Structure formats: structure tokens, C-alpha cells
UniProtKB/TrEMBL annotation:
Its EC number is 3.2.1.-. This is Glycoside hydrolase family 3 protein. One of its GO terms (molecular function) is hydrolase activity, acting on glycosyl bonds. Residues 377-439 are annotated as: Disordered. InterPro entries: GH, Glyco_hydro_3_AS, Glyco_hydro_3_N, Glyco_hydro_3_N_sf, NagZ_Beta-hexosaminidase. It comes from Deinococcus multiflagellatus. Transmembrane segments: none annotated.
């Protein structure tokens, strides 16, 4: 008889801060959780991050999976290492060797502190200019280019000893909604999906240790469920038809695409039943507890197949064994600064077909004269005396300027500081002003300031 796994072994959670407090450590151990995702709130410095990962390893055990979104470009959690360019820059440079080198450098940064799983590269084909969430995270709009650079990125990670994770399967490149905020739909026919969205995943899954699912409905694949909750997509297509044997992890179940439509606990059970190996149960402790309780009940009642869950645990343990969460001696990340600078520069791309301005012709003598006149040195303006009702704010005046309150009568001495002129405060009481409405003395109902007039 197959023994039931602990619910926590099938979940990935986040932790509240830059240190592992006793309460969080007890929660991880008590629930049997083996996987943690780190975010900016968990990162302060390299020594701090290394210490945090060591504490997590001690609590999570030998099968620890410590993950992070470390894509490059806009998606970087640590800010104390040299900044690597994102996928769009690397795609524009179109040098797979450079992409592989940058990806290996990113992986070395993570391995230096003990992170063994990077949620990268992005294999989305960014064909929709109105896409609000992918953009510069994708290698481009050409599936062949995405395959070319995605393969280089996967090999760069593998060479550095960090597990990569391709995302967001089956593809987030042609949406106009952000799944963090809503549930998108991609209403393309299957042939169009095969030619665009699915092409990079199908080509690169044999080299991908893990794949992350998208919270998107693809009616041509499953008209009822988003991919994260779809058995037709995760089991029938990914496992059976394509023969994928790596880890399937969901995107965060706290996104509104899932949480706003299904709820945390029920969605986790549906995702595991659909074929996911690991559910990303991020968020507050109450949400994690609700997910743990729902999965525990589904395991106890047989709603989740014990044999399928055991197979999932086997894949997770194999991933942790192949890419252990151990600190490895790596070169100083500062040494990669020149590599990143070269990659940033290589990705600079002209927009459309810019044209250099033509030299001035003889018929444009007046424009040339005007430009020369506006760019030549002008004589200093003559200081103007201040108005009678204005006074300097210090013992000296300042040099003339365009500001109305800086008219001067004399220049400042070397030991004096220039300052603006100020209108002296009004000390005399203002005369009574009657309201402009029907009342002739102060009204019982307050009247706006602009309604008063100088008449008695």
C-alpha cells in the first residue's frame, strides 16, 4: 500500500522576512514543507542571504528546494550584485553564446548563497504589444529566437549547477490581462498555439528540469479550466503526449486569476489532481494553512491519488538531489560586471529606421543664423532694482536671474550668499470685505474666499 505524503511536501511557501524566526521554522517543520520561494523582502545583503539559506536548509532537510525569480532585467531580487540584462536585451543582441554566459553568471550568483532553483528562463513568445506583464521578460516575438536563446539559458544554468524552470506554460505572450489581477483567455486555435506559444516549450522541455504553469484559459486545449488546473493540459498534453518527466510547479496561487475565482484550498487540490507536482502557496499564514488543510483532506478522502502524489514527491526529490541547495565557491560576482556591460551594449537597438539630420543648405541661411545667435554667448543682463514693496532676504542681493523674486540692486560680496527677494509680510490689518451674495455682513453660512468682494 502506498503511504500518504505530508501535505506540506507538495507545497512551496514564502517566509515573512530576512531571517528565519522560530515561529516560521516551527511551521515549516511541523507541516513537512520542503520548498521555499524567496522575494525582495527576504534579501538584504549577500552574507544575510547566505545565512538565511543555511537556516532554511537545516529546517527543510536534504530535499530542500530554495527558489527565486532571478531572470535579469527588471526581475532581480538581490540588488547588491551587478545587474544582468533581461531576456529582451539578450534577444535583441541575438548571440546565444552571450545569453548562455549571462544565464550562467546569474546561476552562479544564486549558488554562491545556496539558492538551488531559479524560476527562469521565460519562454513566452511576446507577440502582443499590449501585453501588460511579459514585455522585456521575453526573448522576443519569434518562436525560433525564443527557442535559440531559451536553450542557451537552460544550458547556462545547468553548467552552473542551478535548476532552471521554463515558464509560463503554455504561454503568456499573447494576453492583454495580467494574471496577477485577472483571469486571461487566449482564444487561439490549436494550430496557432502549436506554431507560436507551444513551440518553445515542446522544443526545450527535454532540457528543462522544471516547468511553471500559467493561470490562463486556452479554449483550444481546455475550454473550462486555466492551464494550472487543467488535467487535459498538464497530464494529457504535457505528460502523456509530450512525455515530460520533469517537475511541474504552479505559479503563485495568490494571483487573482486563481484566488479570485477558485479560492486557495480548492485550487491547490485541483492543481495537484490535474498533474502539478508542487503548488506555490504563497502569502499570509492563514492562506498557507487553508491550503494545507484542503490538501490534507483531499489526501485522506482519496480525492487525490496517492500513487500520483508519490510520483510527484519522487520528481521533487530527484530535482533536489541533482541540484542540491548548498553553497558553492564561485568567482566574485563583480567579475561578471564587464560581461553584463557587454550584453547591455550588444542589445542596444535602433527603433525603426532613424535618420541623421541633414546638413543645413544655403537656402536655410536664416535657420543657421538663428541657431548661431541662440547658442552664442550672451552678455550678462543689467541688474534691475527691486520694486519698492520688495526687500532682500539677506544682507546682500543675488545676481540677476529669470525668477521674478530675484531682482537685484548690487552683486553679493564673496563672503555673502545670494538669495531670493521676498515680499515683506503684510502687517497692517486687512479691511473688512462683505460677501458678494445677498448678505451684507458676515454670513451665518461660511462663504468661499473667492466669493468676497471689496464692497461694504
Amino acid at each position: 500500500m502506498t503511504s500518504l505524503p505530508q501535505p506540506g511536501e507538495l507545497l512551496m511557501v514564502d517566509i515573512p522576512g530576512p531571517t528565519l524566526d522560530d515561529d516560521t521554522a516551527d511551521h515549516l517543520q511541523r507541516c513537512g514543507i520542503r520548498s521555499v520561494c524567496l522575494f525582495g523582502k527576504n534579501v538584504q545583503s549577500e552574507p544575510q542571504l547566505r545565512a538565511l539559506c543555511a537556516d532554511l536548509r537545516a529546517v527543510l532537510g536534504a530535499g530542500a528546494l530554495i527558489a527565486m525569480d532571478h531572470e535579469g532585467g527588471a526581475i532581480l531580487r538581490p540588488t547588491f550584485w551587478p545587474f544582468a540584462p533581461g531576456a529582451m536585451t539578450l534577444g535583441a543582441a541575438d548571440d546565444p553564446a552571450l545569453t548562455g554566459a549571462v544565464s550562467a553568471a546569474l546561476a552562479r550568483q544564486l549558488r554562491r548563497v545556496g539558492v538551488n532553483w531559479n524560476f527562469a528562463p521565460v519562454l513566452d513568445v511576446n507577440v502582443n504589444p499590449a501585453n501588460p506583464v511579459i514585455g522585456e521578460r521575453a526573448f522576443g516575438a519569434d518562436p525560433a529566437a525564443v527557442i535559440r536563446h531559451g536553450r542557451a539559458a537552460l544550458r547556462g544554468h545547468a553548467g552552473a549547477g542551478v535548476a532552471a524552470c521554463v515558464k509560463h506554460f503554455p504561454g503568456h505572450g499573447d494576453t492583454v490581462l495580467d494574471s496577477h489581477l485577472a483571469l486571461p483567455t487566449v482564444p487561439k486555435p490549436r494550430a496557432a498555439l502549436d506554431a507560436t506559444e507551444l513551440a518553445p516549450f515542446r522544443a526545450l522541455l527535454p532540457e528543462a528540469p522544471a516547468v511553471m504553469t500559467a493561470h490562463i484559459v486556452y479554449p483550444a486545449l481546455d475550454p473550462q479550466h486555466p492551464a494550472t488546473l487543467s488535467r487535459a493540459i498538464l497530464t494529457d498534453l504535457l505528460r502523456r503526449d509530450w512525455g515530460y518527466e520533469g517537475v511541474i510547479v504552479t505559479d503563485s496561487m495568490g494571483m487573482q486569476a486563481i484566488d479570485g475565482h477558485y479560492g486557495r484550498g480548492e485550487a491547490a487540490v485541483l492543481a495537484l489532481g490535474a498533474g502539478a507536482d508542487l503548488v506555490m502557496a504563497l502569502g499570509r499564514r492563514e492562506a498557507q494553512d487553508a491550503t494545507l488543510a484542503a490538501v490534507a483532506e483531499a489526501l485522506a478522502t482519496g480525492r487525490l491519488d496517492p500513487a500520483q502524489m508519490t510520483a510527484s514527491l519522487g520528481r521533487l526529490r530527484a530535482l533536489a538531489q541533482t541540484f542540491p541547495a548548498q553553497v558553492a565557491p564561485t568567482p566574485d560576482p563583480g567579475a561578471d560586471e564587464a560581461l553584463f556591460a557587454r550584453a547591455w551594449a550588444a542589445g542596444l537597438t535602433a527603433y525603426r529606421t532613424p535618420q541623421a539630420p541633414r546638413p543645413a543648405r544655403a537656402s536655410c541661411w536664416w535657420l543657421t543664423a538663428l541657431l548661431n545667435a541662440t547658442t552664442s554667448a550672451r552678455p550678462a543682463p543689467t541688474p534691475r532694482p527691486w520694486p519698492a514693496n520688495w526687500a532682500p532676504s539677506t544682507t546682500c542681493t543675488s545676481t540677476p536671474s529669470n525668477a521674478r523674486k530675484s531682482w537685484t540692486g548690487r552683486p553679493c560680496a564673496p563672503t555673502e550668499s545670494p538669495s531670493f527677494w521676498r515680499r515683506p509680510p503684510v502687517t497692517a490689518p486687512r479691511p473688512f470685505r462683505a460677501p458678494s451674495r445677498t448678505c451684507t455682513s458676515p454670513c451665518t453660512t461660511p462663504t468661499p474666499l473667492w466669493m468676497w468682494t471689496p464692497r461694504p
